[in-house]
Amino acid sequence: MKKLDILVIKAFIGPFIATFFITLLVLVMQFFWLYIDDFVGKGLGVGLIFEFIGYQSTSLVPLALPLAVLLSSLMTFGNLGESYELVAVKSAGISLLRFMRPLFIVSFLISCLAFLFTNYIMPIAALKSRTMLTDIVYAKPSFDLKEGVFYDKIPGFSIKIGKKEKNDSVIRDIIIYEQKDMLQDNFIVASDGIMRIADNKKDLEFNLKNGWRYEERGTPNAPTEFIRLGFKEYRKRFDLSTFGLQQRTADSVNKNNARMLSMRQLNVAIDSIKKVNARIGDRVKSEVFVQMPFTANLDSNWKVGSTPLKRKSFDAILPDSTKLSVEQRVNNKIATLQNSNEANLSVFKEESRTLRLYQIEWHKKLTLSLACVVLFMIGAPLGSIIRKGGLGTPMVFAIAFFMLFYFSSTSGEKFAKEGSWGMVPGMWFSFMILIPIGVFLTYKAMHDSQVFNKDFYTRFFKRLNFRKR
Q1: Residue 154: which residues within 8 A CB-CB, separation 6 or more?
Q2: What does the alpha-carbon distance between residue 457 and residue 435 come to, in Å, rounded to a whole number?
Q3: Can you give the three-state secondary structure of 409-432, one letter per residue?
Q4: Between 409 and 239, whose confidence is greater?
Q5: What is the biggest distance separating any 2 CA atoms in the chain, rounded to whole angstroms?
Q6: Percentage of the chain with pLDDT > 90?
Q7: Three-class SS of residue 183?
Q8: What does the pLDDT read at residue 109?
Q9: Which of 120, 198, 233, 357 fits a disulfide with 203 by CB distance 3.0 to 4.6 angstroms?
Q10: Which residue ranges traverse the bilayer (predicted)?
């Protein structure tokens, strides 16, 4: 390795590490922005939140790496161009491709690491993240009593307190409404009390003082009894075991999701689905054709030699007395065949859709990895053309090209999922767009193009205005 290679690699490593963590942070924050309403008020512990952030960050690494490579390559070559180091390298007779070679190798190694990460680590992180997200979304809100507001999250109860002291334990003007069934309602009214968590850590305990308990007793077909009971002290407990995230769902619930599988497991699943689809044709032959015996002799008795036989119409040879019964049997047979075909077609469509989902994940593991190399082919020549370092101009171009990559890959994936496009054209659609752009930018950079130079356009319009005068 020559000193020039070490120079460009050192110039690349720093921006790459910084942009990678910034990109990962932005992607994680974007995720939490979408699900913030599902996290608020659930009583989640700090450890649980950080655990989820760790799993979610790990599952987003394959998407953050291509953007980090694009932005860091733009910054690296932009800084070298801004400081005229690229000019010095070219004046020494070293071509841009030779100067890009060490970083191309580095981006290829990053692509290989990204593939290993996507294939072996990301499925586990995605499985953990998906399971935890489901538990958090469907968890009930944490117990939080507010002054003057009825709290009805406990099944069968509605609680209202007039005032809470600063320590949140002493409460005043308490109303507890309990509904046992549609006809019987119970009330507890107390002037003050103490609210605390019971010793078993699963119950919320109210020690009420100076109040009344109102209760209705009876059956739908009998008179209702009304009971009023005064008390100086009364203890009421509420079960809080269903609140928060008390029990975690087993990871095995989502283990068959396509995103949670490696390429080897995807290959096995794809082969199994293809075998199921192949058996659907055999099922049609066994369920449909067996009900039509004439299908075995479709070509017989149509021709004798070269002279067609003279035939009478079916209505001509069918007696009038049997026409009605024959029509009914034919209609029943057609209805049976139609139902059987629709059932087989529904199974075939569902299996084909599942097959496409597994194939999409198989291709995605390759496309997300190779995107590091493709976006480097855009970022490096583009940085040498614009010759601007820092996070300003490179960030604008990086976001623009990454959005082009993201939207084209998302659109191709959508068409592949719907079956409108083939799997290869759909999943590699973004590469069909970006590779020609990378080749074009590399060609322009090798010939010192001014296509992204602001001064070039300023001079051009000045000359244009001068000629008009």
Answers
A1: 143, 238
A2: 26
A3: HHHHHHHHHHCCCCHHHHHCHHHH
A4: 409
A5: 111
A6: 13
A7: coil
A8: 94
A9: 198
A10: 12-33, 60-80, 100-122, 366-386, 392-409, 421-443
